Description:
Layout: H1 9-29, H2 31-37, E1 52-56, E2 61-63, E3 76-80, H3 81-86, E4 90-91
Parallel strand pairs: 2-4
Antiparallel strand pairs: 1-2, 1-3
Amino acid sequence: MPPPSKPKFFPIVMVLVVALLVFSPALVKWEPVVRLFSLPSKKPRAARPDAKVWVNKQSGFYHCPGTTFYGKVQPGAYMSQGEALQSGYRPIGDEPCR
Length: 98
């Protein structure tokens, strides 16, 4: 009985590498591949500068109306969203108030 043949991985890998090199220009334009390797575009939402927000003076964040900690976190103060952004405060979750 002959000894079992060993798989020849090197030739198989080389064929796959060559195929990838040959077809890579086409793969770059193929939509499923483009969607797989591209980051989702996050369009920044426009902040309403006149929205009244509650700034947390200790943390440097501000809370939008209707959120859990709006007007409750101390030390804090009310100010417009435009003033808060100019003063260096950031929205919780990087989402400005609408």
